[in-house]
Amino acid sequence: MNQAYKGTPFDLTGRVVLISGATGLLGKEFALAAASAGAHLVMGDLNISKLESLKSEIASASPDTQTWVQVLDVTDADSCRSIAQLCEARFNRIDAVVHSAAIDPKFEQGSDTSRFSKFTELPRELWEASLDVNLTGAFLFAQATCKVMEKSGKGSVIFLGSNYGLVGPDQRIYKKAGQEHQTYKPAVYSVCKAGLLGLTKFLAAYYMNTSIRINMLTPSGVWNQHDDEFANNYSSRTILGRMSEKNEYRGAIIFLASDASSYMTGANLVIDGGWTAL
Ligand SMILES: NC(=O)c1ccc[n+]([C@@H]2O[C@H](COP(=O)([O-])OP(=O)(O)OC[C@H]3O[C@@H](n4cnc5c(N)ncnc54)[C@H](O)[C@@H]3O)[C@@H](O)[C@H]2O)c1
Questions:
Q1: For residue range 196-238, what is the model confidence (pLDDT) as tens digits?
Q2: Mean pLDDT within 1-28
Q3: Among candidates 38, 36, 35, 115, which has minimal Cα distance to 69?
Q4: Which CATH code of 3.30.750.24, 3.40.50.720, 3.10.180.10, 3.40.30.50 fits the domain covering 16-267?
Q5: What pLDDT is attached to residue 30?
Q6: How far is the CA of 7 from the centre of ligand 1 (A)?
Q7: Ligand 1, atom 9, residue with closest C-alpha
Q8: 240 CB neighbour count, 10 Å cutoff
């Protein structure tokens, strides 16, 4: 039973939450969080076996949650429409959308950072692929899901930003001792996240005088097996002196998806350990 939020404004009992990029590091946390507050889930991502295994995990953690999974490619308008239609067919509505799908260049141990070269050498195909998933994908996914929300005139859409959409990446933290060629967080990531904030504000304003609310959640560096050098470099740039844990955004996603944030739209909830306040 999901009782922790029962009877509070954070209660998601019976609400339908659609999550893109659901099997990602944070996507999975968002799914577990929404289920823990009582939501039913429709989850999309590129890999069906990862989706099925997440579905099993949610069934163990939150047995009252109804969970549907479907392969989703956010760069494909038909695929976006199809998962929105799945929500309608099963539940007749979408209460909240968490748009977590992204190409997010990672720097944890084992990541292939060879393509994260100097700005002047950034491959055009990486630029275009990122724009396609991170911006065009957000546009297509929002089109498909807002169309369903328009029928009820209410719902909450949550885009995922980054501290690097608000300030430029501090490239010093990507420099490793003894490394001949430095790697860089690519320009296109900042461009996409800044663009998503624009889409957040555009859509919030567009849905004026409705109860369709559009907000952004801005996480920052989540620890995921990073080496000590990187983790220390990153941590030194934050006020809290550490990277975040992946479960530290669970409360925020429940807040944004639920009635607890009912007077919030066009806003950006920044959870970055103080990175952008320094
Ligand atoms: N992890 C972090 O440190 C961090 C920090 C700040 C912001 N963010 C943002 O939070 C969000 C979630 O991050 P994450 O750590 O879970 O990222 P992740 O890379 O672990 O997961 C992203 C997911 O998106 C999916 N995806 C990629 N292309 C897709 C497509 N075309 N269609 C459908 N799904 C697709 C991937 O398969 C993956 O499961 C992202 O928008 C990311 O940019 C993450």
A1: 999 999 999 999 999 999 999 999 999 999 999 999 999 999 9
A2: 93
A3: 35
A4: 3.40.50.720
A5: 98
A6: 32
A7: 160
A8: 11
